[in-house]
Amino acid sequence: MSGTSITVPFFSPDPFVADHDALLKIIYDLGTGPDQKLILGDRTAELERRLRRTTGAGDVVACGSGTGALTLALRALGVGAGDEVIVPAFCFPAVASTVAGLGGVPVFADVDPLTMTLDPNAAESAVTERTKAVMPAHLFTAMAAMPALTALARRHGLTIVEDAAVAQGAVLDGTPAGRWGDIGVFSFFPIKPFGGAGEGGVALTDEPELGRAMRMLRNHGQDGVHRFLHHRIGYNSRFDEVLAAFQLHRLPELTERLDRRARIAGYYTERFAPLREHGVVVPPADRNGRCAHTYALLLQRRDDLRTHLEERGVAAKVFYPVPLPRHPAFAHHASAGRVWPHAEYAGAHNLAVPLWPELTDGQVEQVADSVCDFFA
Amino acid sequence: MVADQLTAEIPFFTQRRSFDLRWEEMARQICEVLDRGEYSQGRKVAEFEAAIAAYTGAQHAIGVNNGTDALVLLLRAAGVGPGDEVIVPAFTFVASASAVALVGARPVFADIDPETYNLDPEAFDVTSRTRAVMPVHLFCQMADMDRLLSRTRRDGVPVLEDSAEAIGMRWNGVHAGLLGAGGVLSFFPTKTLGALGDAGMVLTDDPRIAERAAALRWHGRTAADPDVSGLAGVNSKMDGIQAAVLLAKLARLDEDIARRAVLADAYTERLRDTPGVLRLPTVKNGPPVFYVYLIEVERRDELVEHLRRDGIGTEVYYPTPLHLQPCFADLGHSRGEFPNAEAACGRTLALPLYPDLGIEDVDRVCASIRGFLTGRPS
User: Fold this and answer.
1) B302 phi and psi angles, rounded to 5 deg
2) Would you call B220 helix, strand, or coil by DSSP?
3) Are strands B182-186 and A350-353 parallel, antiparallel or unpaired?
4) Strands A159-163 and A84-88
5) From CA B168, how far away is CA A366, in angstroms rounded?
6) Residue among A225, A240, A344 with most chain B CBs within 10 A, to mutate
7) pLDDT tens-digit series, residues B174-212
8) Tell me, what DSSP letter sits at residue A331?
9) Which of A241, A263, A267, A346 is most enclosed, with most CB atoms within 10 A?
10) Are A229 and B325 inside 8 Å of each other by CB?
11) Would you put residue A314 in left (φ > 0), alpha (ψ -120 to 50) or beta?
12) ∠A309-A315-A319 over CA atoms, to 5°?
């Protein structure tokens, strides 16, 4: 490491820097308020209503985290012991651990070499008679190939859990992220597009029965009417009122924040387009199916670029260097003989540069300049 | 004024007054979370974990998202899984048993001591499939840990404590959760130490359990190797804001516990010898910590309705024993199998009990109860 100090951190040091006073007031008002229902109360219901309106989903169920939402989704769809769920080999571990946690089998399929999301052909060849669902995840700046995956699911009678944890606000062929699957999931982890002041997430569905099932499962299998009557083995995966009130406070600015992210990503793409002649994989410029969560490049000299950026005060990050089938937790699910060359390649060659809405234009230029002069 | 007092609501739980009184310290703690931008886990949670370790004497305190998750992580960290059986009392909150089911194991129910509502140490059989015994410490006291531990030691089966309600409870000086292989705490808002939302903790002196639980809460990863899941984990981190609120409250916990004891004594004094009151808290496994003041009464459900009309909130812990819950129907139990648990479910009633409560509130609750049970309006 050089002695240079980082002037552009990879994550926003404080995504809510302008909202501290509002958040403190929310906490005080809840603690001293007449309505001491601090979990799954009126504010949570209001947030669910507002998100139904903005996404057009028939039902939105707030729960403990994005990962928690994936588990509720899989349970609601009936995934259980021995059931296979096709998941991308290059991804955050939640897509595999949630399946394994239910006694199911995560079946790893390779990813597309450019978008790094689940490859529909690889997914198709992983289908067996035990396959119950497909769980694509949108990643970095790309939504997964939902039209092809939806067609695949229809052909084989499978359900889709759409991991849209990073893709809230993205739209593909006119359909928003989170609305393609039988159930879609957003995460409110602080650094996410609609990050919150703690852990939380939502599951979206148009199927009333699935919505009801997830509401029951998130709160110990209760039906919301008969207290302490437990219809199903459920979880505690609930949403706090502090978080709900804060999300409601932040919701009006969401579009603006997403636009800012998209503008930064667009600027990067414009600046980095010439690097394609150096063999760098740069996200495409079109807006269809684009999210602007994590801006990752694929390149041969990844580690050298990372060092170069750090010397210029820019923190960069490698995502998922080890494909999921090689994690000790999941290795026993990785069928012998199967390989995931694109997942391996992505793990060995991706590098993400800072992308968060509070970046100043100067910082954004500093990042772009630093990347470009590596190739000069 | 008098009329106001007579008609003012006495909710089952509120912290309006004490939250306001402690706001300065709370705001100071919360601002540290905000200024560092550490909303999930982070240094404030680590600080709270250290403070709970110091308060309880635990070698390891692992902050998680809620008490149920703490049970699931404790069971998994202790190696309980598919094919295993865990002994659980039939009278408790569902999580004691659903956590067992969630790790793929089978809860085997046992009856309770009718006076303490906790697991009867003689009421179960240990078999070759029994992987753990899970006593639950409910309301104001622990299960009889001397008799239980002498049994489990003889049978060579580990004890995992559902000590979710038991902060401040100690057995011969050892804090609840630390008498066996490990235990949990819940910081559900109404708890003796309550957050402003969900939060929980795993307590253990066993470094192996601690290490596994800490990895499991963070997708099976460790700080040393954050790119790889060693275990199929979950996301169960504690929010920094909750840790801040809890740290501020922990500083006054012993005061709160003392206040609860005063209120509990006031209830007992006023309700003693009331016709129709079948049982007041019977402390056998003390010293007590009154999280819940629970009585048994005749015509319980009518009394709940009467108190509600009188503006008094109550809770029924618990209306249905676990062996008769629909979610455990596949275990094939029927009514009559656990008579003490079933009897308790028909008669128990929890009265308002929290530091904000005044003695005059206790007076009003007791007068209302007496009025209903004796047929003479107060």
Assistant:
1) -70, -40
2) coil
3) unpaired
4) unpaired
5) 54
6) A240
7) 999 999 999 999 999 999 999 999 999 999 999 999 999
8) G
9) A346
10) yes
11) beta
12) 105
